[in-house]
Structure formats: C-alpha cells, structure tokens
Amino acid sequence: ASEAEEHDVVVIGGGPGGYVAAIKAAQEGLKTACVEKRGTLGGTCLNVGCIPSKSLLNNSHIYHQILHDVENRGIDVGDVKLNLTQMMKAKEQSVSGLTKGIEYLFKKNGVDYVKGTGTIAGEHEIEVNPLDGGEPQTLRARNIIIATGSEATPFPGLEIDEKRIVTSTGAIALTEVPEKMVVIGGGIIGLEMGSVWSRLGSEVTVVEYLGAIGGPGMDAEMAKTMQRILQKQGMKFKLNTKVMGGDVEPNNIKVNVESAEGGKSEAIDADVVLVAIGRRPYTANLGLENVGIEVDERGRIVIDQEYRTKIPHIRVIGDVTFGAMLAHKAEEEGIAAVEYIKKGYGHVNYGAIPSVMYTHPEAAWVGQTEQEVKAAGKAYSLGSFPFSANSRAKTNLDTEGMVKFITDKETDRILGIHIIGPNAGEMIAEGVLAMEYGASSEDIGRTSHEWAVLTLSKAHPTLSEAFKEAAMAAFSKPIHA
Ligand code: FAD
Ligand code: NAD
C-alpha cells in the first residue's frame, strides 16, 4: 500500500448522504476525502434512483398526456410516436449533468475525490482498492463517515438479470416497452416505475402482499384514493396476494401468486418482472468486522443519536442505517454528522421529513398518518379539501386528489399533512415548514394563500389555496367546499 495520508474526515460513499457530508466538512475547514467505487458521484439517487426515475416519470407523463389528454384542451396532434431511445438519452443527459455537477462541487470546495472501494482496515484507516485496478492506497482519518447506502432486496427464487427480471435499475433502462409487466411490491418504486411503463403502453399488474398500496408511511385513505386513480389510468392491482415464485420460459415469465389468506392461486404472464419489495443496507467489503461495528437483524449499522457507532469517531448516515430511505433524509444526516464532528451538536427533525411519490397526480405527506394517530389513542381532528373544488385545478383540468390535515383535537397543532394532487411534491414544503415551527391548522388557515381572505390579497388562482382551505377545514370551515 502507498503511504498513508491524514484527513480530518474520510467519507465512504458518494451518494446524497456522503457527498453532502463531504462538502459540508470541507466548508467547515476540515481536510476531507470521499471514497466512491461507482466511477461517478451521486450514489443511487443520481445514478439509478431519484433522478433517472423522475426523468422517465416526467417524460412518460408528457407522452401519455399528449395521447390521452390534449384533444379536450383544443389541441389536435397528428401521429404521436414514442421514441424510447431518445427518452432514455434525455434521462442519461440529466444524470450525467448532475453527477458531473457534484464532481465540480468537490473541486470547488476542495474535497479529495478518491475513486475506489473503501474498506475500514483499522479504527483510523481506510484501505482503498482503486477503480482503475492500481495499487491499494491507505487513507488515515481522524473521523470516518460511512454512507454506503442500500441495494434492492432480492426475491428468493427469481434471479435478477436486469433485463427480464429487473430491480429499479433494470426498470429505468429497458430497451423496449414490455407488453406485460408484473410488479412485485406496491410501494413507491412499484408505483412510480409501474406508472412509467403503463403510460408507455405496458399492461402493468402490481402484486402487493398487504391490503394497501403505497408502502409503509402512506395514509390509508390516501392509499385507497391513489389506487383508484392509478386503476383509472390502467394499472391493475392484486392486493393481499403473495408471490410464490416464477417460471422463466423463453418468451414468457409465469408469476405464480396466491391469496395471502391462503387458498386461491393463479399464474400471471409477464414479459418483464419488476422486483420492488424494498431495499436493504449495503455493507459488502466495508470491513465492519475488522473493527467490530455491529449491524442489527435487518443489516442496518447500529448507531446512537449522534450517528456514532461504538467507535465514537466512526459515524453512519443515510440508507445504511435506521430511518426512511430517502435522499433528503441522508443529506440532512450528512450535515448533522459533520456538525457533531466540528461543533459537538447537530440536529435532524425526524418528525418533519417529507415523502413524495412522483406519480400523476403526485402524493406527498409529512408527519403522522391517521392510522398512526388513531393507534396512539390521541384525540384528533381532520380537515380536508378536494382539488375538484379548487379553481386553479379546475382551470387546468387536473382535479384529482385532495389535501388532508390531521390535527391534535385539543391544541390544534398539526400532526400530519397528506396531499394527492398536481404539484403535491412542491406544496408539501409548506407543510414541512409549518410542522417544523409547531404550527396549528389555524396558523395556516389564517395565512393568505394567494387570495383575498382575512389578511393580504394576493394573486388567484393557485393550487395552494387548497392547502389553506384544508387547514381551515381542520379548525373551522373551508369556503369553497
Ligand atoms: P446511496 O445513494 O446508495 O450512495 C451510497 C454510495 O456508496 C454508492 O454510490 C455506492 O457505490 C457507494 N459505496 C458503497 N460501498 C462503498 C465502499 N465500500 N467504498 C466506496 N463506495 C462505496 N429518494 C428520494 O428522496 N426521492 C426520490 O425521488 C427517490 N427516488 C428513488 C428512486 C429509485 C428507483 C431508488 C432505487 C431510490 C430512490 N430514492 C429516492 C432513495 C434514494 O436514492 C436513497 O435514499 C439515497 O440515494 C440514499 O443515499 P445514501 O447516500 O445513503 O446512499
Ligand atoms: P417500499 O418499502 O416502499 O415498498 C415495498 C412494498 O413491497 C411494500 O408495500 C411491501 O408490503 C411489499 N412487499 C414486500 N414483500 C413482498 C412480497 N413478497 N410480495 C408482494 N409484496 C411485497 O420499497 P420500494 O418501493 O422497493 O422502495 C425502496 C425504498 O426506496 C423505499 O424506502 C423508498 O422510500 C425509496 N424510494 C423513494 C422514492 C421517492 O421518494 N419518491 C422513490 C423510489 C424509492
């Protein structure tokens, strides 16, 4: 190994958690290196996750809308054809622009970008096997931040080839539109990627073990509404259904399913099967055993509230440890972990981390679901407002969904906000801010939302009016519904 180099912080993994931690550490004046084995920065999110999936979601939505939703708007179009190769190129362009952007930010902030696989060899040592196959290099670090992320959970008996039996990584790179797609798991990946291929022409069947779609964390009422909307768009759902296995034939895959309550079984034909049953922490070749760092029964690296493993100067953030597997959660932890190193304190409000599902309409939420509040035995109030009564949504002919507030019955403090609707992913930011500041629904209901009521008069019409009216519904009455 080459001579050891001393850094204040070495980050292992260059995803949203790791690259943000590295930039923040450098900004704090710490000598910082980031080790990444992929060959590009940005991790799962930029390379094979958030960014490519959102590119395909956006462009497949435009295609679908042109096919099915422009004539009634007074736009006649000629022959509409899908150019999948170009749609994939557009996706690749977004990915490469953004991943190179992180490389630029590393240079700008003085982060050493080390391309290779990092293995913790000792409490202060990381051995790096370079990507280009050269001599291993040893980095010495006062502090180590592990941000090695996650990988798709495999389905036993269905071997992933990323062509016919795919994870999300194969599903963002198919070279033709499958006639029939079976999606195992009706969580966020299943519904986002299922939407993409359904819009592009596949017959998509989602098989979900539980009685509701949306994965953990989605409000039950919202999950039902979303299922109805996606069904109208052509997706099929088999809930309470177990996948038993599959028979891979030369021109067909038979997915064998059985009712979760036992009994009835059937085979569903597919050209492509998407396995989307969750993701698991990724710690291969990380060398945790060399320093005795523990993982729990689900493979998550065990940490305390300050992100420390039992070796206090080795901290862990993002998908590879506890909590929601979301890019912005990993980023917030990256900043907080560096603040602990530099200043001795840091903070992430886990009660105010939003989730967004980028279907059309989008679903977005923050805080608790109604079923969680109910289970906690708390007295609560509800306020909801449908987009069908919102003038901007009506003007846009895009009226599906609603905004729902859940508040503490006694204090009116907001416990959760759930939105299905156009731009829900942007609108939820306002809910996050409200929850961060401990707002009540009345605080929001009495704030001017771009129309003349109670306070200042601003421009109308906007979708955010529905947000305000749902808050009004929680503490008194909305005007327009
Ligand atoms: P990762 O992004 O997984 O990064 C870890 C990095 O570490 C990887 O690049 C890996 O190569 C590297 N690495 C691992 N081990 C080593 C090692 N030993 N040495 C060197 N490098 C190593 N989240 C959202 O918030 N919004 C979305 O819209 C969204 N969409 C998604 C869509 C899909 C299809 C998928 C799969 C995920 C999506 N996510 C989304 C989740 C999001 O991608 C993750 O939560 C996020 O990437 C986690 O960041 P991370 O830094 O913890 O790990
Ligand atoms: P998920 O946990 O959201 O959903 C998995 C679903 O599969 C669940 O509904 C579960 O009940 C079901 N399931 C599990 N085993 C099954 C089985 N054997 N048969 C049938 N159904 C089964 O996981 P995901 O959709 O794979 O996504 C992984 C992670 O990536 C999530 O944590 C998610 O937050 C993140 N992600 C986020 C976004 C976003 O923020 N927009 C997008 C994609 C992925």
From TrEMBL:
| Domain Pyridine nucleotide-disulphide oxidoreductase dimerisation: from-to ranges | 353-471
The record's catalysed reaction(s) read: N(6)-[(R)-dihydrolipoyl]-L-lysyl-[protein] + NAD(+) = N(6)-[(R)-lipoyl]-L-lysyl-[protein] + NADH + H(+)
> Further remark, if any?
The active site is a redox-active disulfide bond.
Gene Ontology annotations for the cellular component aspect, listed alphabetically: mitochondrial matrix; oxoglutarate dehydrogenase complex
- Give the enzyme's EC designation: 1.8.1.4
* Gene Ontology terms: biological process: 2-oxoglutarate metabolic process
Residues of the FAD/NAD(P)-binding domain: 7-334
Where does the signal sequence lie?
Answer: none
Q: What is the superkingdom listed in this entry's lineage?
A: Eukaryota
Give the positions the UniProt entry annotates as the active site.
H460
Q: Give me the residues that bind NAD(+), please.
A: G185, G186, G187, I188, I189, G190, L191, E192, E208, G278
Instruction: Name the PROSITE patterns for this protein.
Output: PYRIDINE_REDOX_1
Q: Which UniProt keywords apply?
A: Disulfide bond, FAD, Flavoprotein, NAD, Nucleotide-binding, Oxidoreductase, Redox-active center
Name this polypeptide is given = Dihydrolipoyl dehydrogenase
InterPro entries on file: Class-I_Pyr_Nuc-Dis_Oxidored (IPR050151), FAD/NAD-bd_sf (IPR036188), FAD/NAD-binding_dom (IPR023753), FAD/NAD-linked_Rdtase_dimer_sf (IPR016156), Lipoamide_DH (IPR006258), Pyr_nuc-diS_OxRdtase (IPR001100), Pyr_nucl-diS_OxRdtase_dimer (IPR004099), Pyr_OxRdtase_I_AS (IPR012999)
SUPFAM superfamilies for the chain: FAD/NAD(P)-binding domain, FAD/NAD-linked reductases, dimerisation (C-terminal) domain
